[in-house]
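Why should sequence recovery work at all? Because a backbone constrains its sequence more than one might expect. Tight turns favour small or flexible residues, buried strands favour hydrophobic ones, and helices have their own preferences. The token representation captures these environments compactly. In the example below, the structure is given first.
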């Protein structure tokens, strides 16, 4: 029988996955604090998010392909995002033990806030920049390994700022995160800290359902010309929230 905490966590997972697969961000940002409040330790919270997000990204990615948010022409961009992000995940994990968290959270907050402002002001590069995308993706991968978040808002908004299509950017943000989650789970497994618990299913099942819906919302927002603005507002709010948490302690 499910207790109230588990039902709340399941509902939060559904909402988080719906936002993540429609905007390419916010899954871990929403779910991590809720799992911690529900009494789950970080050693359970992080792998739960990584495992469920892996399922969400696979299901969401397939749905993005089905509704043509992601097409063959986006494969190269997805690789430009996925490779540096995946390579730098272990570095983030390694530095987690030696670099103050406040340093990374501060730069993530500043970076995400800046990207959100650029999107809302309609500022972007006139030409696509592969080198810029590689840099922003590497930073996003490091973020994921170091603090478990800061991937989606950096990758998705970064793509749009570097003049990539906003609709494709959302789908690429989800699809490119698949190998990042796999590497993260392998890191836990190699340390003998990956144990499948009932909370995995309580989070993953509702998140999976939401992942089949989110890409349709992406398509609807894109057709109405709202997607860039919504990504900008969401990114800006995430950045400001991150900085406020640091300031207020």
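From this structural description, the recovered sequence reads:
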């Amino acid at each position: 029988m499910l207790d109230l905490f588990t039902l709340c966590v399941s509902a939060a997972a559904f909402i988080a996955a719906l936002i993540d697969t429609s905007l390419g961000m916010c899954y871990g940002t929403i779910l991590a604090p809720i799992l911690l409040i529900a009494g789950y330790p970080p050693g359970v919270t992080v792998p739960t998010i990584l495992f469920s997000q892996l399922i969400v990204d696979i299901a969401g990615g397939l749905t993005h392909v089905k509704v043509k948010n992601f097409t063959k022409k986006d494969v190269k961009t997805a690789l430009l995002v996925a490779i540096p992000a995946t390579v730098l995940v272990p570095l983030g994990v390694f530095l987690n033990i030696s670099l103050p968290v406040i340093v990374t959270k501060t730069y993530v907050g500043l970076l995400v806030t800046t990207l959100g402002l650029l999107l809302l002001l309609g500022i972007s590069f006139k030409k696509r920049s592969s080198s810029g995308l590689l840099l922003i993706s590497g930073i996003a991968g490091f973020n994921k390994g170091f603090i478990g978040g800061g991937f989606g808002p950096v990758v998705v908004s970064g793509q749009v700022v570097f003049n990539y299509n906003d609709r494709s950017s959302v789908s690429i943000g989800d699809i490119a995160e698949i190998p990042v989650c796999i590497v993260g789970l392998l890191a836990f497994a190699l340390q003998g800290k990956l144990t499948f618990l009932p909370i995995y299913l309580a989070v993953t099942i509702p998140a999976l359902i939401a992942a089949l819906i989110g890409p349709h919302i992406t398509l609807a927002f894109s057709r109405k010309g709202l997607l860039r603005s919504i990504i900008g507002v969401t990114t800006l709010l995430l950045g400001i929230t991150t900085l406020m948490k640091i300031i207020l302690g």
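A few observations help interpret the result. The first helix runs from residue 4 to 23.
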